[in-house]
Specification:
This protein is mostly helical. 53% of the residues lie in helices and 3% in strands. It has six helices and two strands.
């Protein structure tokens, strides 16, 4: 005695397979659930607004730029085209001059010409 026809068996097998697949997906999702469906930001929007509200226009404009009058060797080495020797030369010239009066004064450093200065300009500042 047959309970199901061959067509009904096919439908039952497909539906059972989909059910099992759904259960596997749910189990995997539950296992890997991190507690949030969104990227977690550090701080809140209010923190960001408060931070920038406390900054002056120049602070925001110069954020992320290296101040060549106060930077150490490691900071200077982070600039494009500046290695340890050139960083040392920059610091020596800065000590000799007292401080740089403009970013163009970097051209007084041996090894820094107009092309190197052009690469540095977006990343440096003088305060």
């Amino acid at each position: 005695m047959k309970i199901f026809t061959s067509q009904e068996r096919t439908v039952v097998i497909i539906l059972s397979s989909l059910f099992i697949l759904g259960m596997v997906v749910k189990a995997a999702k539950d296992h890997f659930y991190t507690g949030t469906d969104q990227i977690t930001l550090i701080g809140t929007n209010e923190d960001v607004v408060d931070f920038y509200a406390g900054l002056g226009k120049k602070d925001i404009e110069f954020a992320g730029k290296v101040d060549i009058n106060t930077a150490g060797i490691e900071e200077l080495k982070s600039l494009p085209g500046i290695g340890e020797k050139t960083a040392e030369k920059i610091i020596n010239k800065r000590n000799e001059l007292g401080s740089f009066n403009s970013v163009e004064d970097l051209m007084l450093v041996p090894g820094i010409g107009s092309k190197t200065l052009e690469k540095l300009l977006p990343n440096i500042r003088i305060q």
